[in-house]
Design a protein that fits this description.
The chain has 387 residues and is mostly helical. It folds into 2 domains: 175 residues, MFS general substrate transporter like domains (Growth Hormone, Chain: A, Up-down Bundle); 179 residues, Growth Hormone, Chain: A. Helices cover 81% and strands 0% of the residues. The N and C termini lie far apart (43 Å). It is found in: Cell membrane. Keywords: Cell membrane, Membrane, Transmembrane, Transmembrane helix. GO terms for molecular function: transmembrane transporter activity. One of its GO terms (cellular component) is plasma membrane. Its main location: membrane.
Length: 387
């Protein structure tokens, strides 16, 4: 029998639970929005509007969920998230119109606040202190396959049994797979590791300013990430490539994200997370510049964007932990990421309108946002360890 170290076992368990959570919530509308709307007599835009409302609720609840994890640990919160997400999916499967559909997505939004990356990162920070970095990377590496697994499975269920059955199956999986996985997580207690962390690395001299700067960085990153997720094939077509080439290029984003996360673990883990974050914010602008000036293939842009997005996801957990320490990490994480979650809600609509009016010129907005994020990160100094 293969035996894993406790830390590796924690990473594998939480990463598997996160894969299920993301596949059954955030990645659901891409497959089910159209069949949902068709049967309920709605426009697909109304389904996405309900999803956007769920994301806004997730952003609002993030700091409170993080504070609860700081106080009690994340095991109970993550276990409860499986029940809440399952409830939202059941109501979604039974929806008869816009009111019940909106209710289902709002409940799902509560579950996402309790059960996606922010809660997982806060849990790891509570359990492992500053040594959580490798586990955060491992969790994002596993959950990076959420769309790879979730989209085909959701599409298969919808084609064979309908979208209502697809929602029902995901609800059952939360109870029979997700809940047992989160139940296996250790309970949080006062950790000597965390206490030593607090003594060994002071926070930045101006922590509130640093939090505001990080909030912008991640809001910009999440806006760009969500905009590309919704519109990348269409955007690449605006550069002159065919639909088949655009779709094939866009499909490289997922593998690029995973490859970048492996690279972060292998090459950048011994450096401060600020380094990885600065690299992450430069890759999208570099890709856009090469696409516009020297005609780099669409696949090259997709690879650079995907790599940057993969590194940014890790940085959203590791950078606040490294700068501020594990004490109060959950609530602080929720506050920093809240603007990013809100930007996710509006990114598809805003960037879609920009493409309609400017075509591939819409890349100037995403490039500018990420370049400014790079400059912001250069303004943040690494706190010196006092010994």
């Amino acid at each position: 029998m293969i035996r894993f170290s406790p830390k590796l076992g924690l990473t594998l368990t939480l990463g598997s639970a996160q894969t299920l959570a993301w596949a059954s919530s955030y990645y659901l509308p891409a497959i089910l929005a159209v069949p949902m709307a068709r049967e309920l007599g709605l426009s697909p835009s109304w389904v996405f509007a309900a999803f956007s409302a769920a994301l806004l609720l997730t952003a609002m609840l993030g700091p409170s969920v993080g504070r609860l994890i700081d106080q009690q640990g994340g095991r109970g919160v993550l276990m409860a998230s499986n029940g809440v997400l399952a409830l939202g999916l059941v109501i979604m499967a039974l929806a008869q119109g816009m009111v019940t559909l909106m209710l289902a997505w709002l409940i799902t939004g509560v579950g996402m606040a309790m059960g996606l990356y922010d809660a997982a990162f806060a849990t790891l920070g509570r359990l492992l202190g500053r040594s959580a970095r490798s586990s955060i990377t491992g969790v994002t590496l596993l959950a990076g396959f959420a769309s790879t697994i979730g989209w085909p499975l959701t599409a298969l269920l919808e084609n064979e049994f309908g979208w209502r059955a697809a929602c029902g199956v995901w609800a059952v999986l939360h109870i029979v797979v997700g809940l047992p996985l989160n139940t296996c997580l250790p309970k949080a207690g006062d950790s000597a590791v965390q206490q030593n962390d607090e003594k060994s690395a002071p926070p930045p001299e101006r922590p509130r300013l640093a939090m505001v700067l990080l909030a912008y960085v991640f809001a910009a990153g999440w806006f760009v990430s969500t905009a590309m997720a919704a519109h990348l094939p269409r955007l690449l077509q605006e550069t002159g490539v065919s639909l088949s080439v655009a779709v094939a290029a866009a499909a490289l984003v997922g593998p690029a994200q995973v490859a970048a996360r492996v690279g972060e673990f292998a090459l950048l883990r011994h450096l401060h997370p600020l380094v990885a974050a600065r690299v992450a914010t430069t890759l999208h602008p570099i890709g856009a510049a090469l696409l516009a000036t020297v005609g780099m293939p669409a696949a090259g842009f997709a690879l650079l964007h995907g790599a940057g997005n993969g590194l940014m996801t890790i940085a959203s957990g590791t950078l606040p932990l490294a700068l501020f320490g594990p004490k109060g990490f959950g609530q602080r994480q929720g506050l920093i990421i809240a603007p990013a979650r809100a930007m996710q809600a509006f990114a598809p609509l805003l960037f879609g309108l920009l493409i309609e009016h400017n075509g591939a010129g819409a890349l100037w907005l995403t490039t500018g946002l990420m370049l400014l994020a790079t400059l912001v990160l250069l303004c943040i100094r690494v706190p010196r360890v006092q010994g």
